Amino acid sequence: MLKSIHATAGAFALTIISCFWLATVISELFTSPQTIATVKGLILWGMALLVPALVMVGGSGTYLGKGWRLPVVKAKSRRMKLIASNGLLILLPSATFLAMRADAEQLDTIFYAVQALELLAGATNIILLSLSFRDGLSLRRRRIQKTP
Ligand code: HEM
Questions:
Q1: Predicted TM-score of the model (pTM)
Q2: What is the DSSP letter of 105?
Q3: Which residue is closest in CA terms to ligand 1's atom 17?
C-alpha cells in the first residue's frame, strides 16, 4: 500500500511539474500577456497540489528507505533533498513573484530573469524526479525477482 502511494505521489509530482514547465514555455512564446497572467495564476494554485505530493513522496520514501544500504536508495534520498530545497527556495517564491508581476502586466526584464531561473530550477527538478522514478522502478524489479 505504502509503495503504491509512494509511486503514485512521485508520478503525480513529475507530471504536474512537467505540465507547469510546458505551459510556461508555450504561453510565454505564443500567447498574450493576459493568457500568461492566467497560466502563472493557475501554476501558483497548482503549487497547492505539487507541495503535498512532494511531501508525500519524500516522507514515504524516507520510511521505505529505512534499512536499505544500496547506493541507489542513498542517491534517491540525496536527490530528494535537492528537489525540496529547489522547490522551497526557488520554485515557490518565483511562482508567487511571477504570478503577481504577470497579473500587473509587468512583463519586463526582471520578470524574464526570474522566469529563466524558475525554468532552470523546474527542469532540474524534472530531471531529479525522473532519475528517482527510474531507480524506484529498478528497486521494484529487484524486489519482484527476489520473491519466489
Ligand atoms: C527520500 C527519497 C526517496 C527514497 C529514500 C526512496 C526509496 C524507495 C525505496 C526503498 C523503494 C523500494 C521499496 C520496496 O520495493 O520495498 C522505492 C520505490 C519506488 N520509488 Fe522511491 N524513494 C524516494 C523518492 C522517490 C521519488 C522522488 C520518486 C519518483 C519521482 C520515487 C519513485 C519510486 C517508485 C516508482 C518506486 C517503485 C514502487 C513499487 O515498488 O511499486 N521515489 N523508493
A1: 0.94
A2: T
A3: 136
Cα dihedral sign, 50-84-10-1: negative
At 106, is the secondary structure helix, strand, or coil?
coil
Check pocket membership of 72 for ligand 1, CB cut-off 6 A.
no
Q: How does pLDDT run along the chain (148 residues), one tens digit per residue?
A: 999 999 999 999 999 999 999 999 999 999 999 999 999 999 999 999 999 999 999 999 999 999 999 999 999 999 999 999 999 999 999 999 999 999 999 999 999 999 999 999 999 999 999 999 999 999 999 989 877 6
Distance of CA 105 from the midpoint of ligand 1 (Å): 41
Atom of ligand 1 nearest to the CA of 130: 30
Instruction: Tell me if 3 CB under 6 Å of ligand 1.
Output: yes
Q: Cβ distance 56 to 9 under 8 Å?
A: yes
Which domains does the chain carry? 2-146 (1.20.120.230)
